[in-house]
Amino acid sequence: MLVSVLNGFSVGFLLFVLAVGLSIVFGMMDVLNLAHGALFLCGAYLGATFAGGWGGFLGALGLAAVFGLVGGGLLSLMTEPLRKRSHLDQALLTLGVALVAAEVLAIVFGDDPLSVAAPPGLNDSVQVFGVSYPTYRLVIIGVGAVLALAVYLVVERTRLGALVRATVADREMVSVLGVDNRLVKAAVFAIGSVLATTAGVLGGPIYGARPGLDATVLILALVVVVIGGLGSVRGALIGALIIGQVDIVGKYLLPDLSSFILFAALALVLVLRPQGLFGGPVGTAGAR
């Protein structure tokens, strides 16, 4: 049971790194990006390609960051003409991008699942309360906690965060002050995309890299965002930890009902608090 709980925390923190980018893009910029899972899958394949040592792992993280920046910028440009249109139009566009990206990745890497080795020194186990547990998963918990703090500080304590919140509150006034709203949107998209590709590299030793993984993690990320609340860093963290435990511990206790338990938790939150645990109306989100 202890191993399942720890696995729930490791998956939860990994989901946070993925979902918080989706949350801030949708909650702050009001853009529904269904290509977020494809960005995660790209990171996973980068990790699979360069796995084998610390140099390859760090190189994969660096390439994932570059790819995320470029991908986020392109997605921002593609969705800009749809800014005043419905979320359905945005969803169809980004879903199309995700399908094309997934097909390209399948052509390049094939249909067979690829395993990803943890970096040397992190591929062994340590004793936790008398139970052997993978070192890498413990590191993921620590990295996720650090990234949660870093994202919160960027959104809440930096000039970029203040500029984003001001753009959300009054786009026209910020434009009058000489700030290009499109650049703010592109920066938020880039940050969210970098987090997604980075999560893919970090999640490689846990999930591997395979066709269909993008859809799996996207569904989990959307559940996290709905439970936590749009645009809320704290909500994304709490929602991810909840879903991590529900998913992993649910599979341990009731494997045949694990999917039902996951979506039952989502339904319960929607009934009791439709805006999410820490959410507010779209367009008024912050680092709550």
Structural features:
73% helix; two-stranded antiparallel sheet; disordered C terminus; ABC transporter involved in vitamin B12 uptake, BtuC; mainly alpha; globular; 288 residues
What's the layout of helices and strands?
Elements: H1 2-29, H2 36-50, H3 54-79, H4 87-109, E1 125-128, E2 131-134, H5 135-157, H6 159-169, H7 171-176, H8 181-207, H9 213-228, H10 233-253, H11 258-272
Antiparallel strand pairs: 1-2
Helix pairs in contact: 1-5, 1-8, 1-9, 1-10, 2-3, 2-4, 2-8, 2-9, 3-8, 5-6, 6-8, 9-10, 10-11
Structural description of this entry:
- The chain is an all-alpha fold.
- It has one domain (2-272): ABC transporter involved in vitamin B12 uptake, BtuC, CATH 1.10.3470.
- 73% of the residues lie in helices and 3% in strands.
- A two-stranded antiparallel sheet has the order 1-2.
The strand count comes to 2
Coarse shape:
globular
Order of helices and strands: HHHHEEHHHHHHH
Number of domains: 1
Number of helices: 11
Bin the helical content: over 70%
Largest sheet composition = 2 strands, antiparallel
> Uncertain regions: pLDDT < 50 for 5+ in a row?
282-288
Distance between the ends? 32 Å
Radius of gyration: 18 Å
Kindly identify the CATH topology. Answer: ABC transporter involved in vitamin B12 uptake, BtuC
Strand proportion: under 5%
Broad CATH class: Mainly Alpha
Please identify the structural class as seen in this structure. Answer: mainly alpha
CATH architecture: Orthogonal Bundle
